[in-house]
Amino acid sequence: MAGAIGVGVFYARSERLSDQLEQTLGYSGQKANAAKHAYAAAQVYGVARAMGLGGENALALVDMLGVANEYAERVVKFRKPDSAAELRKDLYNNRAGVLAAQWGEGHAPQVAVLEIVLRLADNGTLITERDDSPFDAGAVRDVDAPVRAARVWFAANKGAIDARVQAGLDSR
User: Fold this and answer.
1) pTM above 0.85?
2) Residue 141's pLDDT band (cuts 50, 70, 90)
3) Does residue 69 contact residue 44 with C-beta atoms inside 8 Å?
């Protein structure tokens, strides 16, 4: 029960952040959504690190939770579930958020993770449109098993995602 309440509170905070990004900072709906995913993943990563997980284990945990979240959303959004392209975008942006948090740990600990994430949104590193992925969608049929297709794509492209996000983090 406490876990469900914690997830609900986290989700509500995440949705509120998305609204603030749109209303206060002027980010578009899709750009705000991309930043929301990235920042939420960075926060989960930060909690995992604070609980004593090493960087790679915390990253793996966030990746796993991101996939689990997409499976859960299939149930919640059963009337209009996300497409595989939308799932790929979400998993990519989750990964980008964790990499932003890691980058901040080593390069700019005084800079807020949200600021780093927003820089990735501003410089085009985050994926804002579901069809904007810079990577091949892969061979798994999206229509038959969208979460599986996104998960296979994500596993196959982690190295390329990491390199693209790192380049975005290193750019000024």
Assistant:
1) no
2) low
3) no
Quick one: how far is CA 123 from the chain centroid? 16
- Cβ count near 29 (within 10 Å): 11
Q: What is the pLDDT of residues 12-46, one digit of tens each?
A: 555 565 566 666 767 777 888 899 889 999 989 99
Count, residues in the chain: 172
Q: How far apart are CA 137 and CA 31, in angstroms?
A: 21
pLDDT at 5 over 50: no
User: What is the SS3 string spanning 106-124?
Assistant: HHCCCCCHHHHHHHHHHCC
Q: What is the DSSP letter of 167?
A: H
What is the rounded CA–CA span in Å between residue 3 and residue 9?
10
HSE value, Cβ hemisphere, 13 Å, CA-based, for 80: 0
Instruction: Label residue 106 exposed, middle or buried (CB < 10 Å: 0-12, 13-18, 19+).
Output: exposed
